[in-house]
């Protein structure tokens, strides 16, 4: 059948690490998009290309080791194959582990699909001394075999040609026979043939094998389509029992063994081993890096290097990027309406608010680029799998998985990170229950955005013991995350699917520059997209909730009177000068004030003498009549300039007071006050409440909001630390208050972007809501407990901190001994089987 | 300490009776499950006591009957083991390794 301009669909199937994604990119180029399979969180990559005969749509199936129905990925892949019935399956195989790849190929052939084998990474195999005879292999299997090197796009044309030739042909005859199992299989096959609909739905021989393997999905299919499923199942049960009795093997094991034997036979015949049976290079490295005593040292060193390079050095980079962002803000501000005398129009304040929110987040981009590049290097080199190997024992005690390491590192184990990529990275965890527990605990890590608040509080309340407190913060979060993970896995996650920790240890590879950069940019781009969409949207909501309904009219009237007096004073001062007639109108004075502000900012930004000169020239040309006031030279203008400064300061004071009032009277202010009866047990007053609520949008805003809340006159120009400590002296806040706040902040629900990511990764709003409500209550309970007990016992902040730390650590250790419920269930199931 | 206590715990659950540390020097001849095989020793897989998803996963990664397996190392805290199965390396927890029945070569 030669199909002209006939679009066909092909599926790309293969095991993990076989280079399926590279193959997908090689075939489709840029022409691809990612979607989700309906109803599940597994990625669906779809792309297409054109050949001489028409369009070919390529669907990248999830990477699986086999096609059973145990894991989600396997079910997705299998359902896709059974329902969509693609014309050709391209089976991507890692040439250096051909034996295992063949095991997968047999399963595809059994499902009666026309298969084309892409024998990938032949160069690596040859370097290892395995020379594969592709022609021989093709003969043996009865399917086309195309040697490829995905990274170098070698074999693309041949592969495309083979796909076209295979499309529409009949599936190859099966190369695999099951010996003593053949008789029961043909008996079942006869029974299955009774049903007409079944044969159209699924390949019958495949189903027969599945039934002998006692596969749940196979039984479900039978029950759905076969009228007499009960009788068939009875027969199958008898046949299985007879087979067990005869061979002392379960049919499932026998099937696997047969497949493996055939694979071995084929490998023997088609692969010529030139190299000696040498110890592979990776093993030599592992002897050092995974040495029982040395491994933790290398691990600590690696984590330290990540921290040092990304957080410490990355922060230095922000010194370069921040002025750029500030410049963008300044330029955009120039296009907005001028500020009013007391109130800015919403047209000015809202865009500025949005730019500020975005800027604070974009400031982290350099850090993330470095962090993600380093992590990509770890992943590509193969060391990430080793980290999972080293740490699995600890994670296992808490119901997590060795592969939870990466999400925790991305989320910021010690300091710095972001929960969004962290949650994203949980995709790789095969164990569903651990995956859920990881998703729900990654937000406890110290993301970069939590750091400013910690730094602020530590500077005010614990200045003398900074390093101890920082150590407390960076470790307590892991301890709490472990406790929460254990509690969750023992209770609500109990019923989730678990999987054993069985992981292939990949060879060490030299990471490619392109691969690393691509991954780093991709992950950073996800972060930027989050800033661009969610954060902007939320910034608007927070703005509204913080600015409305606005200052009551009578208070506003008071402020206007105050401003009026200040203006009158100013006019009096300039009475009789040349400038007096020019500055009669309020509007004229306002313009002067605004021009003076921008002039001062421009002068400040000017880095050199010449630049400063240029600013002067520009303003002189723009405002020739006002310029003498800006740059006062004569005695008269100096006096005016002085009173102008007084006026500016007074205006600044009034504006700050209005801003504070706005928040006090805003919706958030009201909520903050309403929550005081509850949060008082944790020692939070309404200002802290408002800061915490607004930090849900993005953590950074906690400090920003506190800054607004604790602001004094702008003329004082003192740091927030000082303002807060001044305030705390007045209201009697102690380090204990600060400790409670820090603990709550550490356990605080993920920011909005992270909760949305949780929705994406868990595929359910239920978990998203849970991820918000549970930490809030849990954090509040713990913070209240620490604060209430601490104040009852009259403990100092440090004493309470130490006490809490000991209790938390003890709880974690105790919990690690609690037996995993899943394990118990598993043992019961296996003993049940044995008993039967 | 944590690990030792844990092991005691497990003994009660009677999944693994042997002490891998003592097995390091000499390869025991009467191994029954994979956890009893010492480091650096090789053996042949006879079958599985596991079932369901665990069994399938083990089979997929090459722990098939008659396959030759070598215990390469165990992690610092004693738990996951690294095995060489055929020509590639796989790690698995002792809990799972205890479900794999082996025999000497």
From TrEMBL, chain A:
Membrane topology, from the record: Multi-pass membrane protein
Pfam families: FeoB_C, FeoB_Cyto, FeoB_N, Gate
Transmembrane parts of this sequence: 288-307, 319-337, 358-378, 405-425, 437-462, 468-488, 527-546, 736-758, 770-792, 798-818
Compartment annotation: Cell inner membrane; Cell membrane
Keyword match Transmembrane: yes
Domain FeoB-type G intervals: 7-169
Superkingdom classification of source: Bacteria
Keyword Lipid metabolism set for record: no
UniProt keyword annotations, A-Z: Cell membrane, GTP-binding, Ion transport, Iron, Iron transport, Membrane, Nucleotide-binding, Transmembrane, Transmembrane helix, Transport
PROSITE patterns registered for this protein in UniProt: G_FEOB
Entry's family note: Belongs to the TRAFAC class TrmE-Era-EngA-EngB-Septin-like GTPase superfamily. FeoB GTPase (TC 9.A.8) family.
Purpose of the protein: Probable transporter of a GTP-driven Fe(2+) uptake system.
Name listed for the protein in its UniProt record: Ferrous iron transport protein B
Source organism: Desulfobotulus pelophilus
From TrEMBL, chain B:
Keywords, in A-Z order: Iron
Ranges for domain Ferrous iron transporter FeoA-like: 32-104
Keyword Zinc-finger included in the entry's annotation: no
InterPro entries reported in the protein's UniProt record: Fe-transptr_FeoA-like, FeoA, FeoA_core_dom, Transcriptional_repressor_C
SMART domains referenced in this protein's UniProt entry, alphabetically: FeoA
Domain of life of the source: Bacteria
Protein name per UniProt: Ferrous iron transport protein A
Taxonomic source organism: Desulfobotulus pelophilus
């Amino acid at each position: 059948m030669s199909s002209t301009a006939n679009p066909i669909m092909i599926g790309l199937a293969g095991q993990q690490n076989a280079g399926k994604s590279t193959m997908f990119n090689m075939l489709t180029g840029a022409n691809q998009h990612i979607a989700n399979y309906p109803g599940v969180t597994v990625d669906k990559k779809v792309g297409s290309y054109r050949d001489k005969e028409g369009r070919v749509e390529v669907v990248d199936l999830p990477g699986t080791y086999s096609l059973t129905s145990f894991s989600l990925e396997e079910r997705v892949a299998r359902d896709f194959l059974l329902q969509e019935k693609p014309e050709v399956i391209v089976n991507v195989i890692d040439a250096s582990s051909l034996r295992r790849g063949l095991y997968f190929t047999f399963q595809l052939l059994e499902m009666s699909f026309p298969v084309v084998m892409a024998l990938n990474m032949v160069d690596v195999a040859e370097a290892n001394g395995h020379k594969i005879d592709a022609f021989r292999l093709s003969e043996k299997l009865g399917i086309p075999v195309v040697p490829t090197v995905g990274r170098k796009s070698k074999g693309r044309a041949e592969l495309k040609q083979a796909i076209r030739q295979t499309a529409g042909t009949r599936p190859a005859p099966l190369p695999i026979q099951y010996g003593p199992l053949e008789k029961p299989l043909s008996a079942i096959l006869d029974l299955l043939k009774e049903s007409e609909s079944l044969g159209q739905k699924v390949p019958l021989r495949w189903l027969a094998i599945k039934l002998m393997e006692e596969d749940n999905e196979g039984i479900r299919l039978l029950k759905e389509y076969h009228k007499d499923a009960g009788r068939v199942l009875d027969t199958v049960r008898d046949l299985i029992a007879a087979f067990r009795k005869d061979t002392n093997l379960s049919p499932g094991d026998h099937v696997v063994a047969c497949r493996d034997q055939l694979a071995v036979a084929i490998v023997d015949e088609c692969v010529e081993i030139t190299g000696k049976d040498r110890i592979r290079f990776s093993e030599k490295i592992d002897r050092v890096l995974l040495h029982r005593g040395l491994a933790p040292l290398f691990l600590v060193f690696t984590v330290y290097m990540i921290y040092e390079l990304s957080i410490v050095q990355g922060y230095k980079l922000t010194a370069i990027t921040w002025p750029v962002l500030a410049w963008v803000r300044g330029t955009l501000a120039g296009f907005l309406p001028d500020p009013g005398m007391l109130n800015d129009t919403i047209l000015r304040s809202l865009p500025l608010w949005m730019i500020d929110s975005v800027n604070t987040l974009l400031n982290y981009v350099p850090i993330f680029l470095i962090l993600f590049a380093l992590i990509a290097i770890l992943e590509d080199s193969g060391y990430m799998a080793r980290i999972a190997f080293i740490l699995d024992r600890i994670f296992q005690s808490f119901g997590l998985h060795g592969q939870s390491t990466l999400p925790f590192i991305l989320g910021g184990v010690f300091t710095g990170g972001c929960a969004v990529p962290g949650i994203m990275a949980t995709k790789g965890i095969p164990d569903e229950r651990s995956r859920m527990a990881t998703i729900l605990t990654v937000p406890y890590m110290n993301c970069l955005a939590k750091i400013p608040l910690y730094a602020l509080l530590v500077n005010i309340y614990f200045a003398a013991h900074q390093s101890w407190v920082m150590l407390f913060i960076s470790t307590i979060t892991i301890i709490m995350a472990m406790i929460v993970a254990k509690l969750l896995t023992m209770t609500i996650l109990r019923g989730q699917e678990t999987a054993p920790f069985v992981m292939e240890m990949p060879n060490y590879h030299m990471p490619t520059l392109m691969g690393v950069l691509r991954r780093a940019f991709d992950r950073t781009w996800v972060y930027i997209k989050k800033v661009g969409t969610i954060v902007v949207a939320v910034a608007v909501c927070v703005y509204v909730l913080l600015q409305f309904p606005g200052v009551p009219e009578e208070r506003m009237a008071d402020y206007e009177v105050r401003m009026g007096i200040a203006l009158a004073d100013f006019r009096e001062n300039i009475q009789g000068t040349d400038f007096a007639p020019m500055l009669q109108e309020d509007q004229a004075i306002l313009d002067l004030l605004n021009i003076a502000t921008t002039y001062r900012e421009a002068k400040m930004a000017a880095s050199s003498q010449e630049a400063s000169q240029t600013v002067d020239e520009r303003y002189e040309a723009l405002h020739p009549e006002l310029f003498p006031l800006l740059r006062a030279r004569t005695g008269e203008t100096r006096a005016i300039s002085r009173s102008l400064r007084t006026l500016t300061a007074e205006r600044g004071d009034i504006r700050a007071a209005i801003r504070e009032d706005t928040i006090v009277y805003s919706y958030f202010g009201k909520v903050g006050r309403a929550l005081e009866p509850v949060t008082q047990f944790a020692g939070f007053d309404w200002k802290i409440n408002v800061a915490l609520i607004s930090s849900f949008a993005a953590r950074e805003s906690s400090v920003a909001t506190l800054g607004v809340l604790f602001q004094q006159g702008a003329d004082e120009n003192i740091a927030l630390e000082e303002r807060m400590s001044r305030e705390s002296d007045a209201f009697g806040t102690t380090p204990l208050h600060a400790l409670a706040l820090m603990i709550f902040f550490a356990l605080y629900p993920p920011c909005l972007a992270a909760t949305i990511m949780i929705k994406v990764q868990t595929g359910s709003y239920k978990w998203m809501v849970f991820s918000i409500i549970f930490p809030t209550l849990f954090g509040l309970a713990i913070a209240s407990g620490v604060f209430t007990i601490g104040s009852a016992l009259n403990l100092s902040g440090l004493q309470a901190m130490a006490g809490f730390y000991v209790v938390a650590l003890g709880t974690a250790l105790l919990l690690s001994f609690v037996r995993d419920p899943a394990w118990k269930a598993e043992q019961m199931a296996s003993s049940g089987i044995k008993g039967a | 300490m944590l690990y030792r206590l844990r092991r005691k715990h497990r003994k009660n659950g009677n999944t693994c009776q042997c002490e891998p540390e003592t097995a390091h020097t000499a390869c025991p001849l009467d191994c029954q499950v994979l956890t009893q095989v010492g480091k650096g020793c090789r053996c042949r897989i006879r079958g599985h006591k596991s079932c369901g998803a665990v069994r399938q996963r083990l089979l997929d990664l090459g722990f098939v009957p008659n396959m030759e397996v070598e215990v390469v190392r165990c992690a610092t805290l004693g738990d996951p083991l690294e095995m060489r199965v055929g020509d590639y390396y796989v790690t698995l927890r002792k809990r799972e390794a205890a479900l794999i029945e082996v025999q000497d070569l």
